[in-house]
Amino acid sequence: MKGQRTGRLIRIVSKLLTCPSRQFSVTSLADDFDVSKTVVSDDVSIIDEALQAEGLGRVRVDRGRSGGAFFVPQVSRARREVFLARLADVLSKEDRILPSGLIYYSDILFNPKFTWELGLILASDFYDIRPDVVMTSEVKGIPLGMSTAQALGVPLAVCRFRNRASDGPAVCVHFATQTGDVRAMYMGTKQICQGSRVLVIDDFMRGGSTASGMCQVVREFKAELVGIGVFLAALEPRKKAIESYSALLRLDMSGEGARVSISG
Fold it and tell me: Which residues form the Phosphoribosyltransferase domain (predicted)?
């Protein structure tokens, strides 16, 4: 249906942002709005410039036969640093310190206005490796993993610490914790396929045992681990159960109180 450009721009932006990484044929968009492909291409260029100016990402156009326009999360350095610095200040408050060197952050990860932005940032960091699925663990990792998966346009697979009948058949792996205990982790057999490219997302890392357990799950499914993203990582212990990961924020409990800073 033909309409004013403003309305058309808003509707195209809505399609692109609600379905990141999904390609929308320029021809189909032109037919939907009863305009020429040239007009739609001009609209996409305007949207691309606006999203880049906001620091959210950009719109790419695949010129191939089956291609189209799609949104790519690409959070700017300036937007990223302002947002993460704000979170670091909030998390550094004294009343957030919990026993055993922990810190309270559930209100951050269960607040959509924060997790939406965090998901865009993590998706920006790992977009180029093209994961097929995002993996996380229950419970606090789920909102962060879901927002990242949504921004990448891929499904989320959740590792559980207790098997549920509603999850269907599951694979179980055992992993050692920092204290020397052994825990079990379950993954439904229908969530990951052999050969899938898996991005692991963890909410908090101290010794890295949970992330290490998820890496074992990836290997058990004969899938490929392509990256590990972490919301908040403790500086101590320095030696983690995994060697390579990317953290957004760092937690330093070595002095009085807690100091959270942007990971350099």
Answer: 125-242
Assess whether pLDDT exceeds 70 at residue 64.
no
Q: Are 157 and 135 in contact (CB under 8 A)?
A: yes
Fold of 77-262: Rossmann fold (3.40.50)
Going by C-alpha positions, the residue among 253, 198, 256, 262 that lies closest to residue 232 is 262
The highest-level CATH class for domain 5-73 is mainly alpha
Q: List, for residues 192-215, the tens digit of each pLDDT value.
A: 999 999 999 999 999 999 999 999
Q: Are strands 224-234 and 246-252 parallel, antiparallel or unpaired?
A: parallel
Q: Is the pTM of this model over 0.85?
A: yes
Instruction: Return the amino acid letter for 138.
Output: E
Q: What would the two tokens of residue 122 be?
A: 């993590």
Residue found by looking up tokens 């990971």 in the block: 263
Q: Residue ranges of the domains in the chain?
A: 5-73, 77-262
